Amino acid sequence: MPCNTVILISGSGSNLQAFIDSAQSGRLDATISAVISNRPAAQGLERARDAGISTAAVDHTAYSNRDDFDAALREVIDGYQPDLVILAGFMRILGADFVRHYRGRMLNIHPSLLPKYPGLHTHQRAIDAGDTEAGATVHFVTEELDGGPPVIHARVPIEAGDGAELLAARVLEQEHRIYPLAAQWYAQGRLILNGNRAELDGEALPATGFPFNGTSD
Ligand code: GRF
C-alpha cells in the first residue's frame, strides 16, 4: 500500500519536483495526494497541476493570527488523511499544537548541516563563518524550529569565491537526492521517530542523521 503523502510548499517547489519524479519513476512508494501552499501564487502549485496532483492554497495573509491559519491548514491536510506530511520549501513557522498533531509523520528539509545554522540565510552564514563545507539535513519536525531529530544529511564543499546563490544551488542538488530517499525509508516502514531519536531499521540514526555519500543505502 503506497504511503499517502501531502506536500506543503511556499515557493518554486524544486524539492516537490524531486518527489514527483521519484514517485513517477518508482523510486518512491508514495502517492502524493495533494500539494498545499500558503502562497496561492507559488510556482510549485503549477508543477503539481502539470503532474495531475490536487492542489490547495491556504493563504496565510487571510488569517489574523497564526493559530487560525494553523487550524485551517490542518483541516485541509487532514481531509487527505496523509500517512506522511512533507514540508518542502515551506516557509511558515508552525505552532506547537499543529506540530504535535503530526509528530512522527512530518518531515522537513533545512539547508544546513544541523545543528549548525537553524533559521534563515544559512548559506551566507556558513560562508561568513569561513566554513569549508555546507549542506542540507532532513529531519522530523518537532516543536523546536529546525531542531527535530535528523534523518539524513548531505555535505557539499564551499569553494573559494562561492556566493550564497551558487552554494545554495550546489546544496539544492543534494536536497533533491536525500529528501526522496528519506521519504522512501518512511514509506517502507524503515524510518520512525522514537522519542527524540530517528531510527532506521530499528537502529538509532547518528545525531546528525545518516551521512549521505551519494549511494542510496
Ligand atoms: C530549499 O533550499 C529548502 O532547503 C528550503 O527551501 C528552499 C527552496 O526549496 N526549505 P524548493 O525549491 O521550493 O523546494
CATH level 1 class label of the largest domain: Alpha Beta
Shape label: globular
Span between termini: 22 Å
- Ligand roster: 5-O-phosphono-beta-D-ribofuranosylamine
Number of strands: 11
Gyration radius over CA: 16 Å
H/E element order = EHEHEHEHEHEEHEEEE
Our count of domains comes out at 2
Query: The CATH topology of the largest domain is what?
Result: Rossmann fold
Give, in spatial order, the strands making up the sheet with the most strands.
3-2-1-4-5-6-7-11
CATH architecture designation of the largest domain? 3-Layer(aba) Sandwich
Question: What is the residue-averaged pLDDT?
Answer: 97
The share of residues in extended strands comes to 25-35%
Note the quaternary state here. Answer: single chain
Helix content: 25-40%
Briefly note the structural class of the backbone.
alpha/beta
User: What's the CATH H-level superfamily name of the largest domain?
Assistant: Formyl transferase, N-terminal domain
Low-confidence stretches: none
